[in-house]
Write a structure and sequence with these properties.
Blueprint lengths: L13 E4 L5 H10 L11 H6 L4 E5 L5 E11 L2 E9 L8 H15 L4 E6 L2 H6 L3 E3 L5 H10 L10 E6 L1
Antiparallel strand pairs: 1-2, 2-3, 3-4, 5-7, 6-7
Length: 164
């Protein structure tokens, strides 16, 4: 069942669930930030398999201006991933809006908390999240140790959580 955020706007830009037609835009926007380590590279298969986990911020012409997704580790653990806002519309509060949408989706699905690993300390702390130790999420450590241990220690990424 699709959970509709309480703040979905009738005007543009507006939040809405991603559709199959959005997959190329999701990949392009997400991977724009992968070389800097701000997002993990995603492909069409990931986006397709997680389509029900994506929310997009759509502009008036239908273009995807921002996005966020959930990545479930277990029925009680979910991570906020693929948070990205097009550089042309940054500084307008859209990142926080997308974070709130992910929280609503996670809470609506019954997760007791949500976590994220990010460089965006001010954004997450300003959205009501708290710092957390990555060790609280051995599933995350295990998954990325198998893929690339460096993903856990790139730059100044920090772990954040929000308990519902």
């Amino acid at each position: 069942m699709m959970t509709k955020p309480r703040y979905t706007r009738a005007v543009f830009p507006r939040l809405e669930p991603a559709t199959e037609a959005d997959i190329p835009s999701l990949i392009t926007l997400n991977n724009m930030f992968a070389p800097e380590g701000k997002t993990l590279p995603r492909d069409e298969l990931f986006a397709f398999n997680h389509l029900h986990d994506y929310w997009v911020l759509r502009g008036e012409t239908g273009v995807v201006l921002g996005m966020v997704a959930l990545d479930e580790y277990s029925p009680s653990l979910v991570e906020l991933v693929s948070l990205a806002v097009d550089p042309s519309v940054r500084g307008r509060g859209y990142g926080k809006l997308l974070i709130d949408a992910a929280c609503d989706l996670a809470e609506g699905r019954g997760y007791p908390e949500i976590f994220a690993v990010s460089f965006a300390d001010e954004l997450f702390l300003g959205a009501g999240w708290e710092r957390a130790k990555l060790d609280l999420y051995p599933e995350k450590v295990s998954r990325y140790t198998k893929i690339d241990r460096e993903e856990l220690v790139v730059g100044e990424k920090h772990c954040f959580r929000r308990v519902f």
